[in-house]
Amino acid sequence: MSILIKKAKIITQNKKREQYQADIFIDSDRIAEISKNSISVEADYKLSGKDKLVLPGLINTHTHVPMTLLRGYGDDMVLKNWLEERIWPIESKFNSKSIEIGTKLAMLEMISTGTTSYIDMYFFEDAIGEVTQKIGMRGFLGFAFIDNGTPEYSYEELIPNCDKFVRRWKNKDLIKPVIAPHGTYTCGPETLQKSLEIAIKNDIFMHIHCSETREEVYNVQRQYGLRPINQLKKYGLLNDKMVLAHCSWITKNEILDIKKGNSKISHNPVSNMKIATGGYTPVPELIDSKVTVGLGTDGAASNNCLDMFETMKFCALIHKQHRWDPVILPAQTVFDFSTIGGSKCVGMENYIGSIEEGKIADIIMLDLKNPHFIPKFNLISHLVYTTKGSDVCTSIVNGKPLMINGEFLTLNYDDTLEEAENCAYELIS
Amino acid sequence: MSILIKKAKIITQNKKREQYQADIFIDSDRIAEISKNSISVEADYKLSGKDKLVLPGLINTHTHVPMTLLRGYGDDMVLKNWLEERIWPIESKFNSKSIEIGTKLAMLEMISTGTTSYIDMYFFEDAIGEVTQKIGMRGFLGFAFIDNGTPEYSYEELIPNCDKFVRRWKNKDLIKPVIAPHGTYTCGPETLQKSLEIAIKNDIFMHIHCSETREEVYNVQRQYGLRPINQLKKYGLLNDKMVLAHCSWITKNEILDIKKGNSKISHNPVSNMKIATGGYTPVPELIDSKVTVGLGTDGAASNNCLDMFETMKFCALIHKQHRWDPVILPAQTVFDFSTIGGSKCVGMENYIGSIEEGKIADIIMLDLKNPHFIPKFNLISHLVYTTKGSDVCTSIVNGKPLMINGEFLTLNYDDTLEEAENCAYELIS
Q: Which of A47, A74, A156, A172 is the most core-located residue (most Cβ within 10 A)?
């Protein structure tokens, strides 16, 4: 498969953060050539760059894709009631089929809003992997560990099935298995250690919820005598293959520990605000300490959408407001989080997150013919402060087009919506 | 002109907040009939409600429409530098022609994202009125007073020209003149009194920036011995025809004064956060005190877009996060702000803000065939937490269609974008 994009304005996100107009030739899964001169070559797809902006696909570093089926099912509620009365009862009814359907809906939403890679944490991750691979998205799929077991497996079944899961997906192009102990408040030391063993044995990434709410921090401290970050440190999980979701209630000392371990942070401002965790991920301090930061939407049940452009605007604005400083988190920094930062979170900074020759072709295109892009003084500013997911017209993952000018190539739009709507109503009935 | 909308799911925003499927017949400027039975009548436009959602047009209670031309021209800057180095030098170059062009761009953006009415504050408001009327939007146009004069008029010219402006626009259908002293830090007592006189004489609304930043509150207190709200109260401007923009730094006592005067509040969360004012409009307390609250985007230079759906999400989330309470500002309350609340801000609650027989037909339609609307458990929740301006497909103002299924009827899309882009670059050159 080959794709030629002609005369495109490119936001490269290369080291110099260059922007220029060029032709891009994609051959197989790679960006084979970028040239300011015209590239003349045969290609399966030839796309015009006129009135378009080409950028690296966005990387969503924390979500629970099947939760699209629970979108809007219980908003404006206290966290405990929301989980106990709404989320958990439905989750207990999930099976491979409903997970597949919810995943498809999420893929449709992510592709159409510019996300090309995502880190997930859920159960029935095999089903999520199958759908993701078939549709052609890039998924880092977190097999969830919880002391109480998951709706898919009892606690005893988790280890052997996780082993199987990892073996199955380890050498795939698009899917990478991830080990995901749910959190230090839901996973005791034994679970943390066992999950770490599998990760080390297979040299793969881990993903965990960490210091999202004050209650969590308080409970972990009370139960184990350590706050979540230190609990992870004690058991060796604060390492360079760990992606910590949230970290809204961490201290300056904990930032130093995170940096020492070279763990990564997934910041989820929209979800944190909607759930009203009250905490603020200390992003300026994380930057100062050179900790890698990525952005995530969290699941659709607590956001309620998967639009990474929206998440970028929330990220930039919430910290400006909180610190009384309009200068912190400038647009370029926030855009870096969702591209370069995301690629570092999953250890793929040499492969995705920027548009450079030799890198994998995870690329999106925006339609600039929209009033909110005019005037085009500062495109990076526009990407964070005015772009909507709906501006994305084309999405290419691993060199394959998933959407071209709004048409989906690997998903049936109408069927996906209808199937998901029916499945969701069946689940709550 | 007549319009028939068939089998539409309607969010009425009537007193009972009913939602149901019905036909809607619009005759001239009015909603002539809403019926759960099929309406059979000839109409100039017949629109299918299939997969659509019909709701009242949104009311943007604070903006500066021509500032679309300054979108992205200086972001991530300290307020003072931003104003002195970027905004004011360009504003001094504005003339009727550039104002017209910027207004057209804003109309295109507002129509396409669901706004049908807006309150403005700027200079060259005659030009804004002409464009708005020609395009068919509903504008409450604030003629700005500033002690130093505006780029259009010297201080001495303001009163006579404001008189002319009011006479010119007073009895129009779509345009209502508004008197807009810029703020208590830019307008001394004399200016406040003179502007009030014109408002009283003509029985029209007033609009002012009030208690947006701490610096403003501090400076007004130091200069006049009173905080902005009390300064307005002293000179009689805290009355029932006053719309106060921002009020991010007000006290509980000031809320009582606002309520006593029955003044209205325009809350602009996105702009406040982007400029990093640090303050939080005390929306929960305003609700408790039964003060009317509307939502605004502010100008595109400090937002940077005019999407009221985005503003609703920011409104709901910023207060949840700030108060550590996911229950405050539920979706229905926030949606009320941008419809009913907005209509009360401009004294038109008997005419716009809801879909009811006899009311003026300011109506928008959303396309529900989008992954972020699935499943459709709670449409009000979706309106605040997942809807994007881009979901708006049809916009009707005063019974006239301005956009039908994405096609603009009173504006040329391509020309408007091109003209605005050229004009903006000329201004900064």
A: A47
Instruction: Reply yes or no on domain B58-345 having CATH 3.20.20.140.
Output: yes
User: Which residues lie across from B118 on neighbouring strands?
Assistant: B60, B139
pTM: 0.98
Contacts of A125 (CB under 8 A, 6+ apart): A141, A142, A143, A144, A165, A177
Q: CA-nearest residue of chain A to B105?
A: A371
Which of A321, A373, A393 would best serve as a mutation to test chain B binding (most B beta carbons within 10 A)?
A321
Q: Does domain B2-57+355-408 have CATH number 3.60.60.20?
A: no
Half-sphere exposure of A177 (CA within 13 A, CB side): 27
Yes or no: say if B299 and B67 are a contact pair by the CB < 8 Å rule.
yes
- Domain A2-57+357-408: which CATH number of 1.10.10.10, 2.30.40.10, 2.40.50.100, 1.10.260.40: 2.30.40.10
| pLDDT tens, chain B, 429 aa long | 999 999 999 999 999 999 999 999 999 999 999 999 999 999 999 999 999 999 999 999 999 999 999 999 989 998 888 889 999 999 999 999 999 999 999 999 999 999 999 999 999 999 999 999 999 999 999 999 999 999 999 999 999 999 999 999 999 999 999 999 999 999 999 999 999 999 999 999 999 999 999 999 999 999 999 999 999 999 999 999 999 999 999 999 999 999 999 999 999 999 999 999 999 999 999 999 999 999 999 999 999 999 999 999 999 999 999 999 999 999 999 999 999 999 999 999 999 999 999 999 999 999 999 999 999 999 999 999 999 999 999 999 999 999 999 999 999 999 999 999 999 999 999
Whether A80 has its CB under 8 Å from any CB of chain B: the answer is no
| Secondary structure E strands in B36-77 | 45-48, 52-56, 58-63
Q: Is the ipTM of this complex over 0.90?
A: yes
* Residue B313 with chain A: CB contacts under 8 Å: 310
Quote the tokens at residue A250.
């961490």
- The verdict on a CB contact (< 8 Å) between A276 and B325 is yes
- Cβ separation A109–B372 shorter than 8 A: yes
Beta carbons of B76 and A330 less than 8 Å apart = yes
Q: Does domain A62-345 have CATH number 3.40.50.2300?
A: no
Q: Where are the domains of chain B?
A: 2-57+355-408, 58-345
Contact flag A374-B68 (C-beta cutoff 8 Å): yes
